[in-house]
Every structure is written in C-alpha cells, then in structure tokens.
C-alpha cells in the first residue's frame, strides 16, 4: 500500500512537531505519545493501515513524512549526530505508535536507542548487518528471539540515499504461493539453527527452531539467510526453495528523504544490495505486546 502525504499537510505536520519539541533534545515517552496524537490527525484511515500490516501484504510505503528542516552530514560512526534535531525520530516513533505498534529497543543493541542510525560504519563495512556495506541477504530482524520479544514491525525512514541502494522487501504470503505444501511443512519443523545477529551483544547465541509458524491461521516467519541453517538436506533444500520464491516476488523500495516504510517483521523479509556511498536511514522497532519506550534487557 502506498500513501502519499500532500506537501501542504507535511508542512503543517512538521510545524506541529517543532511545536512540541521546543528545546528538547532527548526523546522520551511523553514526546512519543504527543507525536502519536499528531500522526493520528494527519494520517488517512488508520484502521485500514493497521489491517494492511496485520492481514494484508504486510507493508506500507509512505511519501512526504516530516523530517528536520536541516539534515547534517551522515554520521559515519553510527551514533546519533549532535547537530541533528529530533523531528524525523518523532515522525517514525509517532506513526509506528499510531498504527498500534509500540516503539521499543534492546539494551544489547546500539545502547538501547529507540531510533537506530542505519549508516555504513567504517569498521563494520564487511559484516552483513545494518551498519555494513556488503550485500545483506533477506532476513527478518531478531529472528533468533522468541515471538513475544521480536519486533513485530520495522519502520525505516530515509534521510539520504545518494547512490540509490534501495531496500529489498518481500511479502511472505506471496512467496509461499511459489513453494510446495511439503516444503512448507518442512519449514514449520524444528529443523533449523538460528544464530543471533552481529549487532546484538549476546555472544552469537544459537537456537534450534522452525522457520515458519502458523499463528491464528496466518503464516509467520523467522529467518536470516546468512544466519539460519537447516540441520539436514531436506531442511536445507526447503530453505533454498523459500529463498528462490522470495527472489520471484521481491521488490525494491527506492529511497528519497521523507520516505518511510513500515512493515510486518513476522510476515515480510528485507535485505539490500551493496551500499556504494552516502546513505542514512533511521529505524525503529514496534511491538503489539511490549509497552511504548521499553528498553528490553535480553538475558542470554
Ligand atoms: Fe534488518
């Protein structure tokens, strides 16, 4: 689903965000709630948007979401730029919250920041991760975690993407139409080992579980093709078939400043090609279970 916010509406929305920020530099729960209420005023029918995430293809592509009037140069160390305001952050957090997904973070990832700077970091370029530049294969975020602890949604906002490294996105429901019932059954069996991602400080923790689950009659997925391994040949073949099926249905989200994509991390996979230059996205996790602004501590 594509939602284009008219320029005039974006301006009014941005002005209201500047109004609540005043001199605040820090994001807190109160500001997120205020931004949520502003989002509810300017977004089109919110129930339709929620249904699309929960029961439709699982993603919404927004254009013209308010960001800061001035965007400083890309932070090459991956930490929050001190020169930057917090308008884009409040947009991303407020919209996620307005759609029913509470922004939260993990203490073990990026020091618990609620909004992550997705930028190439010099020392991490060769690691397939949100701070790398090498190609990043399809995955769902935090695939190794229990469903209640995983992000149910991801929100990605563009501040800069000079060399047009889009984000690849695919809907599970479309991919599953391309594989057999037998392969789906295999993917639902506990025949896979998932390793924690490089951005989590949890000592590359491993868990033995399935790739697909069926919750309330709807298929969900947990996978990171660079970090998930089938424990026998049948499991590996089914995983390869799922990758081929995703290749058939995937599309590329091209980024311009003010583009925001919110997608269901249980029902969509994402990835990207090699990052060739200046690129700055921001990300937040959303949960329908974990309360707003929680910094989760993972016990490993
Ligand atoms: Fe990711």
Describe what you observe in this structure:
- By secondary structure, the chain is of the alpha+beta class.
- The protein has one domain (2-296): Clavaminate synthase-like (Double-stranded beta-helix, 4-Layer Sandwich), CATH 3.60.130.10.
- It is built from seven helices and 17 strands.
- The strands form four sheets. Strands 1, 2, 3, 4, 6, 14, 16 and 17 form an eight-stranded mixed β-sheet that branches.
- Helix 1 (7-21) packs antiparallel against helix 2, helix 2 (29-42) packs across helix 4 (87-98) and helix 6 crosses helix 7.
- The radius of gyration is 19 Å and the shape is globular.
Q: How is the CATH topology named?
A: Double-stranded beta-helix
Given helix and strand content, the structural type is: alpha+beta
Q: What number of domains?
A: 1
Proportion of residues in β-strands: 25-35%
Q: State the end-to-end CA separation.
A: 38 Å
Would you count the extended β strands for me? 17
**Helix proportion:** 25-40%
Enumerate how many helices there are, as a single number: 7
Low-confidence stretches: none
Kindly provide the name of the CATH class.
Answer: Alpha Beta
Order of helices and strands: EHHHEHEEEEEHHEEEEEHEEEEE
CATH level-four homologous superfamily name:
Clavaminate synthase-like
What global shape is seen? globular
């Amino acid at each position: 689903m594509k939602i284009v916010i008219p320029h005039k509406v974006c301006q009014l929305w941005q002005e209201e965000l500047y109004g609540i920020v005043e001199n605040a530099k820090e994001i807190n729960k109160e500001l997120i709630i205020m931004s949520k209420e502003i989002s509810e005023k300017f977004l089109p029918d919110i129930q339709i948007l929620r249904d699309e995430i929960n029961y439709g293809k699982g993603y919404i592509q927004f254009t013209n979401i308010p960001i800061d009037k001035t965007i400083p140069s890309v932070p090459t160390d991956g930490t929050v730029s001190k020169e930057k305001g917090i308008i884009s952050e409040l947009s991303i957090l407020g919209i996620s919250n307005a759609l029913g997904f509470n922004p939260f973070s993990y203490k073990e990832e990026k020091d618990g920041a609620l909004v992550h700077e997705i930028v190439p970091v010099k020392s991490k370029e060769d690691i397939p991760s949100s701070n790398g530049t090498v190609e990043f294969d399809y995955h769902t975020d935090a695939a190794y975690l229990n469903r209640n602890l995983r992000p149910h949604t991801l929100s990605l906002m563009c501040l800069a993407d000079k060399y047009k490294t889009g984000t690849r996105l695919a809907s599970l429901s479309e991919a599953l139409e391309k594989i057999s019932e037998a392969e789906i059954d295999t993917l639902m069996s506990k025949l896979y080992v998932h390793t924690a991602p490089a951005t989590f400080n949890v000592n590359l923790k491993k868990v033995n579980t399935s790739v697909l689950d069926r919750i309330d009659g709807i298929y969900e997925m947990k996978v990171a093709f660079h970090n998930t391994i089938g424990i026998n040949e049948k499991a590996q073949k089914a995983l390869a078939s799922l990758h081929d099926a995703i290749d058939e249905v995937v599309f590329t989200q091209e980024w311009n400043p003010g583009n925001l994509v919110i997608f269901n991390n249980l029902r969509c996979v994402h990835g990207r090609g090699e990052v060739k230059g200046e690129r700055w996205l921001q990300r937040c996790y959303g949960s329908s279970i974990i309360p707003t602004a929680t910094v989760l501590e993972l016990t490993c």
